[in-house]
Specification:
Elements: E1 5-9, E2 40-44, E3 59-63, H1 70-77, E4 84-89, H2 93-98, E5 101-106, E6 111-113, E7 119-122, E8 130-134, H3 137-143, E9 146-151, E10 166-170
Parallel strand pairs: 4-9
Antiparallel strand pairs: 1-2, 1-5, 2-7, 3-4, 3-10, 5-8, 6-7
Length: about 190
């Protein structure tokens, strides 16, 4: 069964999503270069917390998965066992608090799963079934069981991908000192 699929945007009036290439092409595995080409991107409901941020906001989300060690959970997620933890730089907090996002509900018929952090793509234009405005992103994250943690810099999290947790980093090129420190731009994965 195909899950509910969403697209998040700061634009409140998208009548149709047309396939388009990604803005910043990523290095892809052999044979997967087509993912930089014209596509409509969507995220399944279970992973929507990855996109409850202003578009250019650098963030890292982490969550336990089967096989995650107690030591890694304690180190990276801490007490209380939140479902997920979202790490954001303090410099972005005011924008996060005041941002308004629009969650577009997309019909699943033309989408195919990438089997990676809930991402789906369509090679065809997609007309949304509806749109919902989200005015309080920290509250929306909390409603999904995501604990928001603010940091001066995301650099101390660079070793998170070596842990047994699932980690996803988005817009890391915008994180303070990330590129200067020679850190890779990770979209998802360990």
């Amino acid at each position: 069964m195909t899950p509910s699929l969403f697209h998040f945007s700061e634009d409140p009036a998208i009548a149709r999503f047309d396939p388009r290439p990604v803005r910043v092409p990523a290095e892809r595995a052999p044979g997967m270069d087509w993912l930089n080409g014209p596509l409509v991107w969507a995220i399944e409901a279970s992973h929507q917390a990855l996109y409850l941020f202003p578009r250019d906001c650098p963030r890292i989300l982490a969550w336990a998965r089967a096989g995650s060690t107690t030591a890694d959970i304690d180190r990276w997620m801490g007490p209380g066992r939140p479902t997920r933890v979202a790490f954001v730089e303090w410099a972005w907090f005011d924008r996060l608090k005041t941002a308004r996002l629009h969650r577009y509900d997309l019909p699943p018929e033309t989408f195919e799963s990438l089997a990676e952090a809930g991402m789906w793509v369509s090679r065809q234009a997609v007309t949304p079934r509806g749109v919902e405005t989200l005015d309080d992103l920290p509250a929306a994250l909390g409603a999904l069981g995501v604990e928001l943690r603010l940091m001066e810099s995301l650099l101390p999290l660079k070793d998170l991908w070596s842990s047994s947790l699932q980690a996803s980093g988005i817009r890391l090129r915008n994180a303070q000192g990330w590129l200067a420190a020679g850190q890779p731009l990770r979209a998802a994965g360990r």
